[in-house]
Amino acid sequence: MLDFPRWRVWMLSLIVLFGVLLAIPSVLPTSMRAQLAQYVPTPTINLGLDLAGGSHILLEADTSQLAETRLEALEDSVRSAMRRTDPRVAIGNVSRANGQLSFTVTDPSQVDAAREALLPLTGNTLGSRDWNIGVNDGNRIVLSPASTGNETALDQAMDTAKDVIDRRINALGTLEPTIIRQGDNRIVVQVPGLEDPEALKALIGKTAKLEFKLVDEQADPDQTAKGIARVGSQVLPYPDNPSGLPNIAVRRLGGISGDKLIKADPTFDQQTNEPAVTIQFDSEGGQKFARMTQQNTGKLFAIILDGQVISAPQIKEPIFGGISQISGSFTVESANALSISLRSGALPVDLKIVEERSVGPDLGADSIRRGILAAIIGTTSILVLMFAVYGRFGMYANIALVINIGLILGVMALANATLTLPGIAGFVLTIGAAVDANVLINERIREELKRGRRVVQAIEFGYKEASRAIFDANSTNVIAAVLLFIFGSGPIRGFAVVLMIGIVTSVFTAVTLTRMWVAGWVKRTRPQELVI
């Protein structure tokens, strides 16, 4: 237990030195840290929302819109499935009322064939059923949503929305956002240090659902202006309509969705020199886009963003290669924001802000001052008490405690972790508990000396026997911290992170480092008596 080869001494010393050096940038002033970053990497600890200030936003999904979107996608799939059957199944009187999709089969003898063609559309990859199939009046098929289908769709949509929001915020260059689901249909977004919360709300709230649909050129302009569409078409707002009408009619089905986009970059229109966005589809989307433009050359097609037409150019020639350009009344900032939204993907469901809070940095600065004060008072008290009670061995524990503080900061900086107000509480708690291991070791050595063991034997048995209790106790603490991190959110996870790091570093410093120092002292001095 007291045998420390030279190579091991050097290895442990380098680990300590490396960890402490990692902690230095986090305690330096911002200006000095910026100068240092020009020469060497400077990993730092990020401050959470409650310390650095920032924005807290609670978003809620529009479940009714999600249900309508599912019905629209189902209708498109049903029409395609009926066209693919051999012989083709003719359908009519399609309705999307009361959350159900229903249609009539023109030839009643083909109802079974239609039902068979619909079966692949009613399940999902998880093996459960999304839609129930029913037949009314002999030839009317009704598809109604299954309860498990609604739950699965909402769960998948919220997971996707969470990922999309994460990509959008990270594209802004903001570090360490907290994005978590709350309940079934809500998402909490916390972004520390954000100076422009309005830009964040605009970026998060934008669905960025891009669609390309053919313009219904047969529509009556007067009816379109009133918002009345023909069968098979829909009326959408068109603020920049050259005709002056506020709306435009487009074909409801048969368009191309923007979910096949693989690239979106802000650029400038070569003809007008105005800001624009260049998009590129993947191979499947590029083929559909080429087929659409090839089959409808000379016609108008609408570029629709979040339910609003931003442009309706004429297809002058087929567009191959899957690359196109979106132009409109863009500024450089709005073109950049749109490209970020399109690159990150469309939100699968509309999100509305139901709660918004802004935290000022002044409150965080006061919390930091109070937390540092608590840490200083607690550390000083522990240092004095340990030295007064255990003498030399207390001094070893004190040095280990100071190194432990540096290692905690260094590991957090290396992991790019976020320090929150509960994290400071966990930091202070870790400092107070860090010397527990040394208390156990020193008291165990005292007991071995009272039993008549020699100094070396007492030290060896003291470390050996106490280490079992130390590792057992800290293992349970680590399990608790891991559970807090997994099931907690926001500040709770910050507390768990600091607690986990502190437990590991405190065991390393309190057991391994002090044992190395004691072993070195015993080898040098060969003491015959020991007073603790």
SSE blueprint and pairings:
Blueprint: H1 6-27, H2 30-37, E1 46-47, H3 49-52, E2 54-61, H4 63-84, E3 91-95, E4 101-105, H5 111-122, E5 131-136, E6 140-145, H6 147-171, E7 178-182, E8 186-192, H7 197-205, E9 210-214, H8 221-225, E10 233-237, E11 247-251, E12 256-257, E13 261-268, E14 275-281, H9 283-295, E15 301-305, E16 308-311, E17 323-327, H10 332-344, E18 351-359, H11 361-390, H12 392-414, E19 418-419, H13 421-434, H14 436-450, H15 455-487, H16 491-525
Structure description:
With 532 residues, the protein is an alpha+beta fold. It has 16 helices and 19 strands. β5 (131-136) and β6 (140-145) form a beta hairpin. The chain is elongated, with a radius of gyration of 33 Å. The two termini are 19 Å apart. The model has no long low-confidence stretch (mean pLDDT 80).
Largest sheet descriptor: 4 strands, antiparallel
> Taking all residues together, what is the mean pLDDT?
80
Helix content: 40-55%
Percent of sequence in beta strands: 15-25%
Shape: elongated
Spans of at least 5 consecutive residues whose pLDDT stays below 50 are none
- Number of separate helices: 16
Structural class call reads alpha+beta
With strands numbered from the N-terminus, the spatial order across the biggest sheet is: 7-8-2-18
Alpha-carbon Rg, integer: 33 Å
